[in-house]
Design a protein that fits this description.
Length: about 400
């Protein structure tokens, strides 16, 4: 986990979104004549080796062109193409390609042929399994340091964050090639080297098969929705023991008092950690310290299981667009890591990784925690993960973020 997070942070901080020039799509169209030979007149690569550019994020295209030009991303074909491009050329080309419809893929016969041949080629005995690819895409495998791909590339590969490429409608073979490149470190990106490096060749084939299977991609019913937890003996025992907590945290863990956190639907491991730390003093709080001191380890596990099994109730709130942008995109200039990297697109965090659910939490509580991390009053975050992010947030950032997170469902 330590490695994955360090590399995540390094990646996120080292990405420079700054797009110096404003692109002109018309000018880009003219300039794109040289690109069409490989990437297609409609931005759909003419064969599996040439990525689709149609509908890709403009920011991402500019970043990649710069990387090819500087040699940071090594590819001799693209080096020769990008070497002669000015910042303005890049911005124009990016504006042009990003505006093209991404579904061009299905109208393009060569692309269809290509993916059919990819599906039938099967060089080895292994038959790729799109369902396994989909599962790895959505859930990752924390035990092997493979993050959920959704966190950055979005549901079904439709990335909401401009610096993370869309994968939806990309050639499956290109996806497989790039994952192999990341795995072999022929293409350098801290996060992707880590994730692809931990994927087996069969898993890479599964991932490509998932993207080749348009039906599977189009009809995804996200399995990230946590199924309601089974009612175990722990949950039942926890309910009785939680009686003392309900005055502040609500009968079902949905606290109605803004300064008391909701506990409903929070990851059980996270709740146990907090209770242990209130008890030991690693998280200081005058109210919770004495409450937790009275609990045994077994009590903590049972109470946490009970609250984790309750459903969080979130009212319809206005939210905040400013907060949303910061949450999803961070701020490269101020070196603010995007919250999405750890707390997820839906704000559901990850139980195994120790990232709490923040979606639908009480706004006043969220704001108070960010402030406490910033001024060091709360310091129980492993590796200073939250303190280093919060230290860069202004009071108004915190207001907007808390507003957004409280509205997430
Ligand atoms: C001779 C064929 C060829 C031409 C012409 C060409 N490209 Fe490429 N392009 C490639 C190949 C091959 C790759 C994949 C490189 C790799 O495997 O890393 C690529 C990759 C890219 C990528 C990265 C896409 C991604 O999803 O990461 C961008 C952006 C791009 N090209 C833009 C352009 C632009 C703009 C032009 C015209 C100025 C152009 N290319 C002309 C062959 C070409
Ligand atoms: C922490 C965010 C993050 C996560 C999680 C993540 N990626 Fe990526 N991915 C990126 C970034 C950033 C790039 C672009 C790298 C670059 O600039 O060269 C990328 C690039 C890619 C590309 C190349 C796309 C192209 O157009 O060239 C593929 C394929 C890919 N990722 C697949 C995956 C898969 C599969 C997973 C899950 C196992 C995953 N990614 C998880 C951030 C992430
Ligand atoms: C008198 C009111 C009160 C009672 C009773 C109470 N709590 Fe709390 N609880 C709080 C407050 C206030 C906080 C926020 C502390 C802070 O700001 O760090 C909190 C925070 C927590 C947190 C941390 C949540 C998070 O998202 O990090 C947990 C877990 C928790 N309480 C569990 C319990 C349990 C279990 C009980 C019963 C044994 C209980 N509380 C009883 C007021 C109360
Ligand atoms: C590198 C991973 C990482 C990033 C990035 C990150 N967080 Fe966190 N966050 C954590 C961890 C881990 C915790 C729990 C710490 C603990 O164990 O007490 C946490 C806790 C929190 C809490 C307290 C939740 C509670 O119930 O008490 C809030 C609020 C929060 N994060 C908001 C944010 C916001 C807003 C951002 C973006 C500006 C952000 N986080 C970015 C990892 C991260």
């Amino acid at each position: 986990m330590r490695h994955i997070l360090t590399s995540l942070i390094i990646t996120l901080l080292s990405i420079n979104i700054a797009v110096a020039a404003t692109g002109d799509a018309e000018a880009g169209k003219t300039k794109s004549a040289t690109c069409a030979g490989c990437h297609g007149a409609n931005g759909i690569g003419i064969s599996d080796t040439f990525p689709n550019l149609a509908g890709q994020h403009a920011d991402y295209i500019v970043v990649q062109l710069n990387a090819f030009k500087s040699g940071e991303r090594e590819n001799s074909l693209m080096y020769s193409m990008a070497a002669g491009l000015s910042e303005q050329d890049m911005a124009d080309l990016a504006a042009y390609f990003s505006a093209l419809p991404r579904n061009g893929a299905s109208q393009d016969t060569s692309a269809t042929e290509a993916s059919t041949s990819a599906a039938t080629k099967a060089p080895t005995a292994y038959v790729p399994d799109p369902a396994a690819g989909k599962s790895l895409f959505e859930l990752g495998d924390p035990s092997r340091n493979i993050a959920s791909c959704i966190g950055c590339h979005g549901s079904e590969g439709n990335s909401k964050v401009l610096i993370y490429p869309n994968l939806a409608n990309q050639h499956p073979e290109y996806i497989a090639t790039q994952l192999m490149n990341f795995k072999n470190k022929d293409r350098i990106n801290y996060a992707m080297n880590q994730f692809a490096g931990n994927m087996t060749n069969n898993e890479i084939a599964d991932m490509a098969a998932y993207f080749a299977d348009t039906a599977a991609v189009a009809n995804v019913v996200s399995r990230r929705v946590t199924p309601s937890a089974p009612v175990t003996t722990e949950v039942i025992a926890g309910k009785t023991k939680a009686a003392t907590c309900t005055a502040c945290h609500g009968a079902d863990g949905n606290s109605l008092v803004a300064i008391y956190p909701k506990l409903a639907g929070q990851h059980a491991d996270y709740l146990v950690k907090q209770l242990q730390e209130f008890k030991s003093g690693a998280r200081e709080n005058a109210v919770m310290g004495p409450m937790a001191s009275a609990l045994s380890e077994q009590d903590m596990v049972e109470i946490a299981s009970y609250f984790a099994a309750q459903k969080i109730i979130v009212a319809d709130l206005e939210g905040s667009n400013i907060g949303k942008r910061l949450y999803l995109g961070g701020d490269a200039k101020r070196k603010i890591t995007a919250c999405v990297a750890c707390h997820g697109v839906n704000g559901k965090g990850s139980g195994k990784a120790g990232f709490p659910v923040i979606a639908g939490q009480n706004e006043a509580y969220l704001k108070a925690q960010l402030m406490q991390f910033k001024n060091g009053e709360r310091y129980n975050d492993y590796n200073s993960m939250m303190r280093s992010v919060a230290s860069k947030l202004s009071a108004s950032d915190m207001d907007e973020l808390a507003k957004y997170m409280a509205s997430m469902k």
